[in-house]
Amino acid sequence: xxxxxxxPAFRNFLVIEGGFQLKNSSYEEKIEARxxxxxxxxxxFVSSLPAALLAEHHPTRELLEELVVKQSALQxxxxxxxHSQGAVRRRLWSDIDASLAGLEKLLEFLPRLQxxxxxxxxxxxxxxxxxxxxxx
Length: 136
Known about the structure:
- The protein is mainly α.
- It has a domain at about 25-115.
- The protein has 4 helices and 2 strands.
- The protein has helices at about 25-50, 50-55, 60-80, 85-135; strands spanning about 15, 20.
- It has a two-stranded antiparallel ribbon.
- Helix 1 packs parallel to helix 4 (about 85-135) and helix 3 (about 60-80) packs antiparallel against helix 4 (about 85-135).
- The N and C termini lie far apart (about 105 Å).
């Protein structure tokens, strides 16, 4: 007969008050680390924007608001996913991963959008000063 060592049944569980909770896998830990980096980047981006830009209705402001709301929603979904099990847990983490990838792309796009807006504003101001000098 073949003998094999029995694997501990509760190796992937943490004992918590009131029952068991699955340990975070490295996949989940990586997602949580990405979300943490995204949160810090969003906070930094918001604090670095001029107050006037945040006060007016501006495309950058609207994208930033969307990013902040979605990032906050993902943090809540992570809380739910940590306490879920089985297929529901796997699906939640998969959805979080996909949503986070989209938000990371959006965050990469925001500085480029600001650069484009600065160039457009400078070109408009240049054109306005040229036009006004013709009529003076």
